[in-house]
Hints:
The complex is a heterodimer of chains A (236) and B (534). Chain A is of the alpha/beta class. Chain A has a domain at 2-82 and 152-234: 3-Layer(aba) Sandwich (Rossmann fold). Helix content of chain A is 39%, strand content 26%. Chain A contains nine helices and ten strands. In chain A, helix 4 packs antiparallel against helix 5 (135-147). The two termini of chain A are 33 Å apart. The relative contact order of chain A is 0.18. Chain B is an all-alpha fold and 534 residues long. Chain B folds into two domains: 31-274, no CATH class; 294-531, no CATH class. Chain B is built from 20 helices and no strands. The longest helix of chain B is centred in the N-terminal third of the chain and has 35 residues, at 29-63. The mean pLDDT of chain B is 85. The chains are: A alpha/beta (236), B mainly alpha (534).
Amino acid sequence: xxxxxxxxxxxxxKKAVDDLSLHITSGEIYGFIGHNxxxxxxTIKACCxxxxxxxxxxxxxxxxxxxxxxxxxxxxxxxxxxxxxxxxMTGIQFLNFVADIFALSAQVRQDRIHEYADLFELTxxxxxxxxxxxxxxxxxxxxxxxxIHDPKLVVMDEPFVGLDPQxxxxxxxxxxxxxxxxxxxxxxxxxxxxxxxxxxxxxxIKDGRLIRSGTMEEVKGDESLExxxxxxxxxx
Amino acid sequence: MMRSLVEVQLRTMLATLxxxxxxxxxxxxxxxxxxxxxxxxxxFALFQLFSITTDVLCAPLLGMGLGWLYFSLAGIMTIAxxxxxxxxxxxxxxxxxxxxxxxxxxxxxxxxxxxxRMLGLYVQNxxxxxxxxxxxxxxxxxxxxxxxxxxxxCVSLFFLLPLLSLALTCILxxxxxxxxxxxxxxxxFTMILSLGFLGAYFYLFSxxxxxxxxIIIASSSIGASVRAAFYPLYQMGLAAGGDPLAFLIFTAIVxxxxxxxxxxxxxxxxxxxxxxxxxxxxxxxxxxxxxxxxGRALFGKxxxxxxxxxxxxxxxxxxxxxxxxxxxxxxxxxLMGASPLSVMEQVPDMMRYLPLVACAIICTVTAVxxxxxxxxxxxxxxxxxLQSLPVDSKQVLLAKLKLHLLVNxxxxxxxxxxxxxxxxxxxxxxxxxxxVPCAYIMFCGxxxxxxxxxxPNLDWTSEAVAVKQSASVMAAVFSNxxxxxxxxxxxxxxxxxxxxxxxxxxxxxxxxxxxxxxxRVLMQWGAHRLEYLD
Lengths: 236, 534
């Protein structure tokens, strides 16, 4: 579903991502772990076609993000680490705008907005301007906008930040549901307990370079993900 | 601590000019020179504008022995200019600043935070009001030799008058903030208030001659009224003329008033700065959702962005309002039997050039409506939305350009048609009077977009910064004016060689060719730039 081949991105003299290769297959929740500034957000943005990279290839369901970014974006959804949404719109206006972009029919958008807004308990607030939303509400709205076009691939940057426990639980269920329907999830997180319980595969990145990847069992063995991560982070 | 706070405040004010290069690099010498030229030009233009009023008032009032009234009226003008120019800034700086809560969480007395903010406002009051006061003092100096005491007091008043206007600004800003905090349609209120100020300004400006004459004729009774009702201004007028006692009285009044307002605001600063605005919650009721094409959805988003922001509408739609208002005024005058353009007949050959001048005026007025120039910057932190959605950047740019055309073109066409009817040129000229402004608006829209893509400011903390003070907006306004000025020069050079119709036809052709070139650059470089703008 998502194939990253030898991705390299440089900012000035610093290599933010250095020859990174990953393969996320359908039905897989793939966790992406690393310290602050390790290159996670850079990788994620490059995968969504909003950041130019210097070298390498990224394929979304077999289509190169370089060559046909629009075809790739039609299949994926991106959730940034900070849900800055249009504050001059109401929640429903924002969702309808996204539905227009994905050319969803009136019935489909109506049904999906109803379903997800109810699920995340946001229905009552949809007529409110986004500027009146709390951080968590904006995060929920961003999640709903990401899900309403039924994406095959969801790329998320720290999706659980700001969510209440119930919304986090619902999001985890949705992530599993997407994978069960043949989709894939690629997400970064600092919450290692969540990654350990949720992910089928995990990759650890340090200073832009991939230092370990594989199934959860391959990466952590008998240890906890946290101790493996700290051990790898401590290595020079 | 206070020094750090003041430093941060002043740095913030300078940062809004957005002169820094990428990554906060020091602005280039050329950028600083450009900024200095623009600032000097604006200051000089304002000085000239105020001098018109002070020159008219000065000699007659001094001749009647009412020098104090001259300075009192100049003081009123200074204070009014300073208050109007800093009112909305005071509201956002004092009561709505994003870092209020952060600063209040630090071990800093609220009074110190307030002081640093008021100092920033004082500088703004000083800059705007100071120019008006300077014009008054210069006009005075042209009429009489300024005595040593008078000069000292006039210079001192440079610093005292902004303090008085600052005190008034703070009170008014508090009133506006209190009113708008309970309103649902804050944008509408701000628009009406601003247009009210603007309408009053234009009314006074249009009646300036009559008003100044009336002031001069009725100077004795006005003087008596000022003395009775505005005692501090009476003392200020005497002080500027060199009266030490009056200076002491006025200084004491200003300091006491300022101290009282500072004390009241300090006392209530935490409550004012942290009180959450009360809004009535609207419950969502499911209904049929409106389905639109991608193009319409993008344009709808741009339109919603424009109409949701009083700052955006006022700064980038004012030209259209002036064109419509002016045209309605001219049409109404004509319908009532007056001949609004007859004054032009007194200028030799003017009637011949009038269609051309009308065309230039329409273009000049639309030049300030740079709707497209801040439109990319206004995406700010939301830019990821468009970048991550499967939408062609060309369509995004087209939507922004369409908004520019929508705001400007109908007003320009309306104005051109009204002028066509009033001037009754030949049919060819009449058509050109409509078409040339349309071509100019298209050119300006594309140029503004390109400038904004080249000089984006996505890190703004207040949209006023993106709309009013960003480099792309200033560059767009000056480029637009520059094009009209260049055309004026070209016409005067070619005068006699080609007819007015021929000149306008060539102008339109040139604008269309340039627009086509800019369109190509927009659709290639611009679209790619927007896709990966960070």
